[in-house]
Write a structure and sequence with these properties.
This protein is α/β, with parallel strands linked by helices. It is built from 10 helices and 14 strands. Helix 4 links the parallel strand 4 and strand 5. Helix 4 packs parallel to helix 5, helix 5 packs antiparallel against helix 10 and helix 8 packs across helix 10. The protein binds nicotinamide-adenine-dinucleotide. Nicotinamide-adenine-dinucleotide binds next to helix 1.
């Protein structure tokens, strides 16, 4: 195979822990030829992990200008994401840009412009687009069994007490920039139409620092659908990760390891009788709930089943899609416009929560 030669900028939890591991999984498609970290020792440590021939840098420009590098993976802190991606695109490289792709809508629009100038070169790393649970939810929604879907809840809860740079606004921290890109990306897809209204609440609960570790965002779509997205880093018990409600049924996925989908929907073999609103006074009944309901019998189908989409994708297989796009011309699933929409929503929520406005952004070590 014609391997893609990769240079990685930033060798932390994402770069070292995710990008390198994922690229090694697809070692028939990719070869890591260069690495860069402001902490040069981290770059040098890659000689033991990858190959003694890997080129090590402490300045991003050196890696971008390395002629062996065909694709630049950007996994340093969020503040530099947009500018490094633009530099790499201008240098003629392919770019895998980790989330958040930008810390402002204006910067995201610069990426969109660049992606048009350098078509097929920018790959926004919305890796949770490939999450099995999410894709299974989409499949069930598309099957039509839930009827007209009017409301979706998507929540990720944990109890973390974080204290790293992701809790500091001056470094672009806060969970709206951290988990937000994943959950808002899901929300944009779950909406399935243009987002017409955004209402967001940010709070700081258990993390230290000055950035939010809780967000709740209510999105409304042109199709009338409501998508409610919530993240908490200060919740001791988890809620359902997905809840989808349609006018013919509901779907729930609890948040627990090995949790199963619960699906309940009206059996299409029993068409609903047409009924009309009755302006009269209902009869008095011995059964206290009877007068409040239409006494028809509803025929439900109820199922419980494990998460199991029909492909082998997961949040660690995104590089295979990058390879397929570059070498085989298969369209990349995450469109830059969609990643930009995520940043637009993020910025609106931040504007609505002045206390958590982005402060003057600072690079690591400054
Ligand atoms: N897609 C995902 O699932 C996912 C998961 C985790 C983190 N991320 C993203 O990855 C980025 C990094 O997060 P992290 O948790 O790995 O942080 P981290 O602090 O663990 O690692 C960042 C690394 O980048 C280096 N670095 C910082 N500034 C640099 C620069 N200008 N040039 C070169 N190297 C630089 C640091 O020395 C460090 O080694 C964040 O933007 C985060 O949002 C994405």
């Amino acid at each position: 195979m014609n391997k893609i030669k990769v240079g990685i900028i930033g060798l932390g939890r994402a770069g070292w822990g995710m990008h390198v591991s994922e690229l090694k999984t697809f070692s028939d498609m990719f070869e890591i030829t260069a690495v860069c970290d402001v902490d040069f020792k981290r770059a040098e440590a890659m000689k033991d992990r990858i190959s003694k021939d890997v080129r090590c840098y402490s300045k991003h420009k050196e890696l971008i200008n390395d002629p062996t590098v065909e694709l630049v993976a950007i996994a340093c802190r969020s503040v530099e994401h947009t500018s490094y991606a633009l530099e790499a695109l201008r240098a003629g490289k392919y770019v895998v840009l980790d989330k958040p792709i930008a810390l402002s809508y204006a910067d995201a629009c610069k990426l969109l412009t660049a992606s048009k100038k350098y078509p097929g070169r920018l790959f926004c790393r919305q890796n949770r687009r490939f999450e099995p649970e999410f894709n299974h939810v989409l499949q069930i929604m598309d099957s039509g069994v839930l009827g007209n879907i009017y409301m979706i809840r998507h929540s990720v809860f944990s109890y973390q007490r974080r204290n790293d740079w992701q809790t500091l606004r001056r470094f672009g921290g806060g969970q709206l920039n951290n988990w937000g890109p994943h959950l808002i990306d899901h929300a944009v897809q779950l909406m399935g139409d243009k987002i017409t209204n955004v209402d967001g609440i940010l709070r700081k609960v258990t993390a230290v620092g000055d950035a939010e570790d809780y967000f709740k965002i209510l999105l409304t779509g042109r199709n009338g659908r409501i998508v409610d997205v919530e993240f908490s880093g200060g919740a001791a018990l988890k809620s359902n990760i997905y809840e989808v409600h349609g006018d013919r049924g509901s779907l729930i996925l609890p948040s627990a390891p090995g949790a199963q989908f619960q699906l309940k929907y009206l059996d299409p073999a029993y068409p609903l009788e047409e009924i009309k609103a009755d302006p009269g006074t209902p009869a008095i009944s011995m059964n206290k709930w009877e007068p409040y309901r239409n006494p028809e019998t509803l025929h439900w189908i109820e199922k419980t089943f494990p998460v199991g989409p029909d492909n082998d994708d997961n949040i660690s297989t995104i590089y295979r899609h990058v390879y397929n796009a570059i070498r085989k011309g298969i369209p990349y699933r995450v469109k830059t416009e969609e990643a930009v929409e995520v940043v637009r929503v993020t910025e609106l929520v931040r504007q609505q929560n002045k206390k958590f406005r982005q402060s003057r952004l600072t690079r690591m070590g400054k």
